[in-house]
Design a protein that fits this description.
By secondary structure, the protein is of the alpha/beta class. The chain is built from 19 helices and eight strands. The chain has a domain of 266 residues: 3-Layer(aba) Sandwich (Rossmann fold). It has an eight-stranded mixed β-sheet, sandwiched between helices. α15 links the parallel β6 and β7. The longest helix is centred in the last third of the chain and has 32 residues. It is elongated, with a radius of gyration of 25 Å. Bound molecules: adenosine-5'-diphosphate (ADP) and magnesium ion (MG). Adenosine-5'-diphosphate binds next to α2 and β7. The site of magnesium ion has 6 residues, from α2.
Length: 381
Amino acid sequence: MNVAEMLDGKRVCVCAGSGGVGKTTTSAAIALGMAATGAKVAVVTIDPANRLANALGLEQLGNEPRRVEPERLAGSGLDIQGELWAMMLDPKRTFDELIDRIAADPERAQEIKDNRVYRELSTAVSGSQELTAIAKLFELDQDADFDLLVLDTPPSRNALEFLDAPGRLNAFLEGRALKAFMRPTGLGIRALGRGALPLLGGLRRITGIDLISDLTTFFSLLGDMTSDFSQRAAQVEQLLRSPGTAFLLITSAAREPVDEAIWFGQRLESDGLPFAGVVVNRVHHDLLGDRPPREVKRSLARVLPPGLATRVTENFRDYHVLARRDEDNLGRLADALGADRLLLVPQLDDDVHDIEGLVRIHRYLFGSQAERERLIDDLVA
Ligand SMILES: Nc1ncnc2c1ncn2[C@@H]1O[C@H](COP(=O)(O)OP(=O)(O)O)[C@@H](O)[C@H]1O
Ligand SMILES: [Mg+2]
């Protein structure tokens, strides 16, 4: 199965996986490929490398998708039947917009946004990116008319954090801490328990931050908005579970990301979430095979300067080792999640920083089985 088949009839594609494996790159290549098939696609990226952002025309922030001008895609060699849109997520702004949308009135919204606890919460790197990514996805799904949304998930240390983030925030907002703080100032503090008081007091002395009053204000400002939060959280969960959604796991072939992908895949299945497939990026193929390195070097020396021939041979030898390692990990991945669900993208000899690079990745994701096999054969030959 290629990506087009995996995403057939889907409206949302969540690309999940550990950081640094090529999630952002793959998300962009998927969106490009689906746009080529005629769909109006938006890719929501989180942290595109600068050059890729430039290539997509993403340098302006705006927190809304913008169309990638067809001229940018013209040289790609792909015939783009549909439309490619892209946006770079701005977590702080997404959070603010969420508050604007559900606060009773603009004054209340402003007070919340000025509150220190809110500011900390909305800019804390861990958790808030996951949360806002999903919030944005939900909003686009409701309000915009895309055929497909491709979500590049944040570079969490652990991919599962993405699934847990909304639940954690919701638990925090709904939880007992909240109920306690909702009572008039003072009572809330007592409800925290005697142990916490010296702690918070100490914190205030050291940091000068009056956490107690900030927290109390924050929660009383939120007031009845929490029920809207829970309602939204429930709708978001519904979206993630819907048959129109597909989770694609992105991983490299190294041991840790593969372990994590196996974990994540199993968790998706046990949670009943729609798991479509796995893209294994940056796979090393054995360029040396059974040929003895010395022989390879001799034949390379006929066409290359000696120093270069040596370096290329060494490179082949490194690849040979990495390819063995990758093969082991791929075997484990296939056993755990099913071989027919894996799509392999090779380690390219250059970074992917422009449309041309995306097209190179695209071939491995959207080619037919035979085409993909031929590409890999060509690579190794
Ligand atoms: N198949 C590949 N071959 C070579 N370089 C790649 C490949 N896939 C991604 N890269 C490069 O790896 C780096 C990390 O990719 P990125 O998509 O930003 O990862 P992530 O979003 O998972 O952190 C980028 O410089 C990108 O160009
Ligand atoms: Mg990324």
